[in-house]
């Protein structure tokens, strides 16, 4: 039986008294790929933040959050198991740090390098390796605040993988990317699959869901309303109900697109 590496049970998150996540349970096995979809405000990003311990659920005797077999982590140790790419992280990295500094800072779960960060030759070799792998080496000396969205996303993908994490958490990672950049990004997801990473993807774009991602979780109003194989979940009736508009779906060569 495949090992369960993420176990979230009966998790609730409130902001200003309003439930953002409402009694959510979510399990992921090793090497399982999951795409989380749903309208704006459905709770997708909040769920991803729970998994990285950026936020915490309300206490309840029923609530569990067990990550990689442990219920309690210090955040820096947990981050060594996770590779994270999100719009929020890209905003934080929009600075005068150079591309290579952002990538190597992934070893320290920091944004760029500070005086107390001491990297080794091994760190530097790994940084160079992943920057070449994700076609980001030519950006090594470019400042983050001078990069396009696509260039910055390549740097963040390299940063997320520099420490060889078990799980990739990708939250709206294709936002603001043009068509060629999205194609390159899909190629990166396929590469992560070949490397044996577990992929958890929160997205609005069905075209971001590569064929290797076979499980779809649908969220609405802070709850999981559907969870199952892609062929069963990505249908026009269900998505029309969730989004409150008539949704049309097309599938070509294992890739999906949707429109209203």
UniProtKB/TrEMBL annotation:
Protein keywords: ATP-binding, Nucleotide-binding, Transport
Superkingdom of origin: Bacteria
Residues spanning the signal sequence: none
Any single Pfam family the record assigns to this protein: ABC_tran
GO molecular function, one term: ATP hydrolysis activity
Residue intervals of the ABC transporter domain: 6-246
Keyword hit for Transmembrane: no
Protein's UniProt name: ABC transporter related protein
Organism of derivation: Sphaerochaeta globosa (strain ATCC BAA-1886 / DSM 22777 / Buddy) (Spirochaeta sp. (strain Buddy))
């Amino acid at each position: 039986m495949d090992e369960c590496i993420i176990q979230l049970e009966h998790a609730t998150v409130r902001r200003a008294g309003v439930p953002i996540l409402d009694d959510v349970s979510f399990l992921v096995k090793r090497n399982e790929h999951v795409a989380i979809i749903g309208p704006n405000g459905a709770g997708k990003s909040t769920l991803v933040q729970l998994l990285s311990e950026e936020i915490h659920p309300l206490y309840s005797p029923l609530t569990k959050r067990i990550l990689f077999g442990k219920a309690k982590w210090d955040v820096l140790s947990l981050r060594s198991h996770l590779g994270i790419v999100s719009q929020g992280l890209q905003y934080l990295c929009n600075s005068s740090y150079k591309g290579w500094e952002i990538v190597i800072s992934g070893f320290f779960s920091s944004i760029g390098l500070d005086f107390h960060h001491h990297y080794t030759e091994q760190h530097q070799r790994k940084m160079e390796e992943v920057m070449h792998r994700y076609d980001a080496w030519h950006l090594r000396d470019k400042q983050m605040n001078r990069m396009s969205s696509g260039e910055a996303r390549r740097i963040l993908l390299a940063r997320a993988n520099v420490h060889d994490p078990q799980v990739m958490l990708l939250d709206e990672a294709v936002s603001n990317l043009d068509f060629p950049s999205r194609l390159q990004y899909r190629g990166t997801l396929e590469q992560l699959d070949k490397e044996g990473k577990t992929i958890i993807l929160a997205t609005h774009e069905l075209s971001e869901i590569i064929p290797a991602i076979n499980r779809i979780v649908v969220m609405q109003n802070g709850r999981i309303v559907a969870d199952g194989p892609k062929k069963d979940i990505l249908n026009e009736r269900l998505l029309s109900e969730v989004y409150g508009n008539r949704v049309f779906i097309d599938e070509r060569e294992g890739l999906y697109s949707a429109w209203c």
